[in-house]
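Supplementary notes for students who missed Thursday's class. We covered one full example, reproduced here. Read the sequence, then the structure, then the short commentary at the end.
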Amino acid sequence: MASLPLLLKPAAKDYIWGGSRLNDDFGKNINMSPLAETWECSTHPDGTSVVSGGAYDGVLLSEVLKYHPEYLGIHPLLITAGKPELPILIKFIDAKSDLSVQVHPDDEYALKNENSLGKTEMWYVLDARPGSKLVYGFNQDLNEEIVRQSIEEGTIEKFLNHVSVHKNDLFFIEAGTVHAIGAGALIAEIQENSNLTYRIYDYNRKDKNGKERELHIDKALKVANLKSSAIPRQPMRVLRYRNGCASELLTRCKYFQVERLLLNTEIHRNLTDFQTKQNSFQVLLCTEGCGIILGENVALHFFKGDCIFIPADSIPLKLHGKAEFLNISC
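Structure (token representation):
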């Protein structure tokens, strides 16, 4: 029997650099301050999404997928360590202040040394205040000695590429790339299912207990690309139009595919058909607007900030409303 879409409730994180926009802009209604991240679609043990409403109300997404692996599909990436597993993690990130300068390992290093997937990720900028920047790699070739010395002296920032960010920008961050989200950016992040972060520099900040946050310099230098990185340019994006909907491909890599959907059925009599991608689940992350998902025995209202998991064997669905989504699949 075909499956129904699942509305998800996120796990939340109160990292010190967070703000309040995830509550203010997306109505998360989470009693946490600061509210830095919401893990919208996650089966990671450090923060698992929960189904909201329907037959699985209150059940962890990881538990639902444990008993219904067919929801994931049959793509090779959906098999990890011999068992079906959600290979991605989707977040909202509110950077009220700068995140640490950090790096993530690739799969080979992470599996060998951390019993985890590595972390390649994509950022889609939902909003950015004037002057917001991010860090992307180094502006010259370096070696371990220079990096260590610059960290000790607090001068590492002079070697970093600082890139201006604007609403609707996207950035692809391969594992091994030194990076940081800057203050004032509101981000949707799509990444591998991993929580491995090696901090290189954190501005000598102290946590809520008055201690400087831990750095992971030795591990970071084993996985970081210390060569000069070209400043990323925004790729050409092409909108494809059909009645009531337009779409554009943002990213396609070995780990995930991300499209941006612009829904507007206000002036169309026929609702927009939503087809599940063959062999894969899909996740709809609503970044603007509201509407309804309709199908046999289902009428699921969605609003800005909502995240909906669409099983690979979903019933046929139709979308109605005026909204923008990120559509994520494998």
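Commentary. Helices lie at 21-24, 61-67, 107-113, 144-153, 217-223. The two ends are 23 Å apart (CA to CA). If anything here is unclear, bring it to office hours.
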